[in-house]
Fold:
Amino acid sequence: MTTTANIGVSGLAVMGRNLARNLARHGHTVALHNRTEHRTRELVEGFGSEGTFVPTYSAREFVDALERPRRLVIMVKAGGPTDDVIEEFAPLLDPGDIIIDAGNAHFADTRRREAALRERGLHFVGTGVSGGEEGALHGPSIMPGGSAESYASLGPLLEDIAAQVDGEPCCTHVGPDGAGHFVKMVHNGIEYSDMQLIAESFDLLRGALGYDPAEIAEVFRTWNTGRLDSYLIEITAEVLAHTDPATDGPFVDVVADEAEQKGTGRWTVQNGLELGVPITGIAEATFARSLSGHTQLRAAARGLAGPTRAALTGAEAERFADDVEQALYASKVVAYAQGFNQIQAGSAEYGWDIDLGAVASIWRGGCIIRATFLDDIRAAFRAEPTLPTLLTSGTFRTAVERAQDSWRNVVTTAVRLGIPTPGLSTALAYYDGLRAERLPAALVQGQRDYFGAHTYRRTDREGTFHTTWAADPRAEERA
Ligand code: NBP
Structure:
């Protein structure tokens, strides 16, 4: 076989097939491979006219079809299958060749695989890809990790097929080894948070104002013309406006209210706990999905008393939708601030030196959380790359401070009416926690010292101390 293909894709289910088509549509010759042959044949039969494909039916044929250094994208089910495919190809490759895992791997697996393949002289690039199947075909947001050397060879192809915003590709070299998959993981965590906040806003407009889904769709459409302009708000309006053909009623009313998850939210929360980063918005969003799925628990508790739902007064009702917009915006800022803090912490912990402005930049298009808002985040990190939190940067500080009265009103109204708003509430609690002069953590330290002699530090003196609570509470020892 002649070695003609610029790049190869192995794993031709929906994502791999669309990435391969995207590459071919951009003029790259793409070698194709899949464990079972039918997907390869179907791609060539269905879409062969879109570009130049080189179908192959064995691992040997596949690697032989690629120009050197080889670039092989694997797009198979994450976990064991990814290891299987790597083991199938690695022995057939030459030093300097690049294996790209564009599936949804856990970044720790990517670090392990990268280290093992580096030992064998191969580059391994764990790459986050967001945008679902449509994104893969028309331009996803691409988050590659791996070595800078591999990016020099691979980057131009990925940048070619990525979404473009203002003439810039939504793809950049995020950082070494697992940095790309880490950033994709946090992206998904933020996505959970964003979706939960939007869902709570819908629930409030319905529960407090009595709007029907079609009316709420209109509210979201209006919001989508302002600072909340984003893919998620746009599709929310579409979903809310959708009528179920079987019942002629609102679609959202016939869907079971049990949200599912594939696990990336859980990974994000687990990592937040490991790094000690309070990503409370992502955690609440993940637990909210979990609560929704506990149908037996919910059935058992359904009769528990709630507040008497007094309708909002006319004046309250008049401003409530605007208040919800403010609360949603401010809570979104918190969600992103927490997510970017997690990236900062991961970057420091794993030695990645991630450019946060560049991350905001590549999330502006192609991915699920794409939003106008990310332009402001990019500007904030460009102006101050080590910004401690988005909440203190100019644009966001002003907006959140202006939003706070509305935000508090929305959360208190939700509490008063018994409408659960874990996302909006935790975001406000985080804001208040961060800005507090003193936190009750001082008391927690006192309690810890009392029962476990865990010691404490003082505000007026250097050192670590322990009070001898049982023997003599007036005696304090230096620990
Ligand atoms: P799937 O995750 O459903 O995986 C199907 C592919 O994996 C098929 O090509 C299948 O081959 C192959 N495969 C399996 Br399963 N076990 C294998 C093994 N042991 N050896 C070799 N190949 C094996 O496909 P997808 O939905 O296209 O997603 C691909 C990757 O992209 C996943 O990691 C996913 O998490 C990620 N991702 C998906 C989305 C999305 O919106 N779907 C978005 C972003 C990222 P076969 O044809 O022979 O069964």
Summary: The mean pLDDT is 96. Residues 11-16, 34-36, 39, 75-78, 81, 84-85, 103-104, 129, 132-133 surround NBP (CB under 6 Å). Residues 5 and 66 are 5 Å apart (CA to CA).
